[in-house]
Automatic annotation (TrEMBL):
The protein's name: J domain-containing protein
InterPro entries: J_dom_sf
Top-level taxon in the UniProt lineage: Bacteria
Species assigned in the record: Clostridium paraputrificum
A single BP term in Gene Ontology: DNA replication
Record SUPFAM superfamilies: Chaperone J-domain (SSF46565)
Keywords: DNA replication
Length: 153
């Protein structure tokens, strides 16, 4: 389980020691932002599990507010996550597609982040696991986007 998937303090505790969780949070934030030092950018550490959990929940709320996401809104329209990604890849264009696919500038800077992003989506839409019309075409589009990310020198 990742720190951002924890829905309770106990789930957060199950990940490991508080210091390890704080380290993972900071590592992920650095990866997404491309920053090497988070001093003055954001402080996600806390001295207690409850405080750390509350900071994570506030960060989630901020992202949901910023991206206009409502909990459960996607599940009403798509049979599964693979279908959702196939729709985004084949039907959306430009900034709306980038927003839905969560493509950020950091993906073009950090090849490891781009690879992680690619693998996460590919395992949901690959034609070997997703038997939906358009899976092959969506996989080709995903690969094309990924290649642009990693070949952007």
């Amino acid at each position: 389980m990742k720190w951002y998937e924890a829905n309770t303090i106990d789930e957060l505790k199950s990940i490991g020691k508080l210091t390890d969780v704080k380290r993972e949070i900071n590592k992920d934030i650095k990866k997404v932002t491309g920053l090497k030092d988070l001093t003055g950018f954001i402080k996600m550490g806390s001295n207690s599990w409850k405080g750390q959990y509350n900071k994570i929940q506030n960060l989630k709320k901020m992202f949901n507010e910023f991206y206009g996401a409502e909990e459960g809104s996607q599940e009403r329209f798509f049979k599964n996550e693979g279908c959702k990604y196939i729709f985004y890849l084949l039907e959306l264009q430009g900034s709306s597609r980038m927003e839905k696919l969560k493509i950020y500038k950091a993906h073009y800077i950090n090849k490891d982040l781009a690879k992680e992003w690619y693998k996460e989506i590919a395992k949901k839409i690959h034609p070997d696991v997703c038997k939906v019309d358009g899976a092959e075409e969506a996989m080709a589009e995903l690969t094309s986007i990924y290649n642009k990310m990693v070949n952007n020198e």
